[in-house]
Amino acid sequence: MKATTLLIFMAVFLTGCYPDETLNVPVTDTQVKIETDLDIFIEENFRKKYGMAVRYRFVDRYIRPTQRVAPPKLEVVRPMLDFIQKFWVDPFLEVPNGEAYFRAYVPSEVVLLGGFIYNDDGTVVLGTADAGAQITFTYVNAIDPTDKDWEALQLQTVYHEFAHIVHQRNKLPSDFEKISPAGYTSPGFWVSLNDNDALIRGFVSPYATSSPNEDFAETVAFFLYNTDFENQFMIDEPNCLTPACEARNAGRKLVREKLTAIREHYVKVVGVDLQAVRNAIQAKLN
């Protein structure tokens, strides 16, 4: 296993990703400094187009006093912005009603950090979203779109965080929490589960079991990014002859119910078909 792969695995296992979903988080320091060609590029292609300020100059307010992180290297900022444009912005612009949805829901701040956010207790934060006001990308200094582990980290993080904004503004789909109520875990217990445990409970990942909100966001992220989503979560294993196989298929049935509820919710509240978004994303990944 490559060191990069191991590090990402450890980070996902230790903390999941997304600890901060506090509502009504204000965006401070909204003044934009135009000092370089890179600043001009950001101004023209992100702030003026979508109202999105991109913060790549590190300041302490991006993390808590008990956290540590490396700032982004200047040379990775433009490639990271191109990556964000290709895999986050463009797929929504390419589908019916997607541009209106993206413009209405895109956070006013995107923060780039060079490494993971390390907490004093040894845990790691992979990315954060502050109630639609800010999305933070970490580990951008290791940018390598050919590295599928790095790519998965970034895309699953941003799709997860962007999905949070939908339920923060519009609540969860009706009765979403009732689809697999017994599968949710007590605080911190999700780290003891593996992928198979999560599937049997009716979830796409162990972290999804931590709360209905995380279940919603994880299901959206996995659906959009995971190229093998249908085989893993939608299609039942044939000729089940063991209780374990039957349990996995029962879990898949719950995942299908959740995805149906989520897709109907997106159409209802933002007017976007997630299948069309997935198709656009998958076309860029292949």
Oligomeric grouping of the chains: single chain
**Count of the separate structural domains:** 2
What sequence of helices (H) and strands (E) makes up the elements? Answer: HHEEHHEEEEEHHHHHH
Strand pairing plus helix content: what structural class?
alpha/beta
The CA-CA distance between the termini, in Å, is 23 Å
Mean pLDDT: 87
Largest sheet: 4 strands, mixed
What percentage of the residues does DSSP assign to strands (E)? 5-15%
The total of beta strands comes to 7
- Helix proportion: 40-55%
Overall, the morphology is globular
Rounded radius of gyration (Å): 19 Å
Task: Please mark out the parts with pLDDT under 50 across 5 or more consecutive residues, or reply none.
Answer: 1-30
Cross-sheet strand order for the largest sheet: 1-3-7-6
Give the count of helical stretches.
10
Structure characterization notes:
This protein is α/β, with parallel strands linked by helices and 286 residues long. Helices cover 50% and strands 7% of the residues. It has helices at residues 3-15, 37-50, 74-93, 98-105, 148-170, 195-201, 212-225, 229-234, 243-269, 274-285, and strands at residues 53-55, 67-68, 109-112, 117-119, 124-125, 127-129, 134-137. The longest helix is centred in the C-terminal third of the chain and has 27 residues, at 243-269. The chain is globular.
List keywords for this structure.
2 domains; alpha/beta; 286 residues; disordered N terminus; 10 helices; three-stranded antiparallel sheet; single chain; four-stranded mixed sheet; Collagenase (Catalytic Domain); globular
